[in-house]
């Protein structure tokens, strides 16, 4: 059953993120070549592809965490120069890493406060209030803010990491396999949370995922990475009719049929 995905009314298609001719490689081995990709304001876009095709490399190249050899990356209408994204740009996006990447020696609330302390000069009581707000926004209890990451379940770790990704009230959210390791009910709950946040905060969401239920229930558009580029992009129906061995197996294979019906 698809989740409620109604969009904010002002979601005019507008490119918020774009790569043009992007080429990324390591030690003479090209992973992505001449890759064109765009993300429109307000959408939930999923990057899918076989293991090792370069989905994480693409997001890391966009975030400026790995260098690219050719092409351009632009975010919010501004090209990211050779020295990587500006601080102003970094403040406009939040990242949820695959395993949460919480600081194990800090409480949940302290983790959420890290970006605020790094980027904003706010009085301490405001930082604490904002951290609590973010924690509640992702469906955790305010009292969970006092817990250490080691005391959290897998689902709570994802939510705590999401609260930290939302710390600076970003426009754009990157999620790396957000539902991996969650049971189906927790995964569905997390998917609904992402939709709700997109709708209430007006976020744009880019996620790397292998979760066919997520693709079915909340994603607006899908970009398939294969053969070092975006092989095809579009909605689920486009994927279901695209003639390529991996795309066919992924979107029309047994597991896909179970999810897509
Ligand atoms: N820093 C690096 N140095 C050298 N090779 C790298 C580096 N980062 C990634 N690679 C290589 O790039 C290729 C793509 O990796 P990437 O992690 O993007 O795959 P992926 O599509 O995200 O896979 P998965 O679905 O399994 O997470 C892999 O062959 C990987 O070994």
TrEMBL record:
Keywords: ATP-binding, Nucleotide-binding, Transport. It comes from the Bacteria. One of its GO terms (molecular function) is ATP hydrolysis activity. Gene3D superfamilies: P-loop containing nucleotide triphosphate hydrolases (3.40.50.300). Residues 17-252 form the ABC transporter domain. The keyword ATP-binding applies. The keyword ATP-binding applies. Belongs to the ABC transporter superfamily. PANTHER family: PROTEIN TRIGALACTOSYLDIACYLGLYCEROL 3, CHLOROPLASTIC (PTHR43023:SF3). This is Phospholipid/cholesterol/gamma-HCH transport system ATP-binding protein.
């Amino acid at each position: 059953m698809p989740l409620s995905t109604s969009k904010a009314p002002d979601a005019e298609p507008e490119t918020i993120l774009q790569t043009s001719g992007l080429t990324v490689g390591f030690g003479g081995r090209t992973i992505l070549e001449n890759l064109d990709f765009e993300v429109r304001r307000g959408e939930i876009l999923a990057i899918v592809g076989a293991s090792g095709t370069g989905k994480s490399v693409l997001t890391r190249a966009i975030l400026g965490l790995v260098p690219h050899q050719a092409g351009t990356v632009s975010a919010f209408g501004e090209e990211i120069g050779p020295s990587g994204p500006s601080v102003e740009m970094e403040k406009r996006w939040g990242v949820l890493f695959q395993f949460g990447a919480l600081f194990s020696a800090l409480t949940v609330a302290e983790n959420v406060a890290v970006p605020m302390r790094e980027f904003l000069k706010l009085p301490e009581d405001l930082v604490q209030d904002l951290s609590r707000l973010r924690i509640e926004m992702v469906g955790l209890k305010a009292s969970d803010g006092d817990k250490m990451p080691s005391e959290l379940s897998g689902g709570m770790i994802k939510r705590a990491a999401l609260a930290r990704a939302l710390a600076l009230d970003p426009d754009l959210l990157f999620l790396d396999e957000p539902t991996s390791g969650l049971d189906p009910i927790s995964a569905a709950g997390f998917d609904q949370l992402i939709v709700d946040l997109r709708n209430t905060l007006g976020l744009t969401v880019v996620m790397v995922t292998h979760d066919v239920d997520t693709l079915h229930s909340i994603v607006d558009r899908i970009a398939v990475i294969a053969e070092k580029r975006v092989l095809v992009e579009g909605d689920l129906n486009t994927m279901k009719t695209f003639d390529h061995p991996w795309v066919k197996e992924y979107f029309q294979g047994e597991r896909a049929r179970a999810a897509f019906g």
